[in-house]
């Protein structure tokens, strides 16, 4: 399993007080009790934890844990691909 998955899993455990053994890549967020509003708010938690900016179209509602991991990996790859802005 990826390092991203491990970090996302830890954040889900902490944020939603869910037992770690319930979380797998193919687990639906809804099965974990993560409703639509909580999924939207979780995007901000992810951004803070990974120091990234998620795509404005990122929508984790109704998705799988793997969708969360994929969204973070995409944000990380975009961040590493673009040069730092110097102002």
Task: Give a brief rundown of this model.
The protein is mainly alpha-helical.
Description:
There is one protein chain. This protein is mainly α and 87 residues long. The protein has a single domain, classed as ACP-like (Non-ribosomal Peptide Synthetase Peptidyl Carrier Protein, Chain A, Orthogonal Bundle), CATH 1.10.1200. The chain has three helices and no strands. Helix 1 packs across helix 3. The radius of gyration is 13 Å and the shape is globular. It starts with a helix and ends in a 6-residue tail after the last helix. The mean pLDDT is 90.
List the helices and strands and how they pair.
Blueprint: H1 3-16, H2 36-50, H3 65-81
Helix pairs in contact: 1-3
CATH architecture: Orthogonal Bundle
State the helix count.
3
Helical/strand content category: mainly alpha
> Rg to the nearest angstrom?
13 Å
């Amino acid at each position: 399993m990826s390092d991203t998955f491990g970090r996302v899993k830890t954040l889900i455990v902490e944020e939603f007080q869910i037992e770690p053994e319930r979380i797998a890549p193919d687990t639906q967020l809804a099965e974990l009790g993560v409703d639509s509003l909580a999924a939207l708010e979780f995007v901000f938690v992810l951004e803070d934890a990974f120091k990234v900016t998620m795509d404005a179209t990122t929508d984790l509602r109704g998705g799988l844990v793997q969708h969360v991991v994929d969204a973070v990996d995409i944000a990380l790859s975009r961040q590493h691909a673009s040069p730092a802005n110097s102002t």
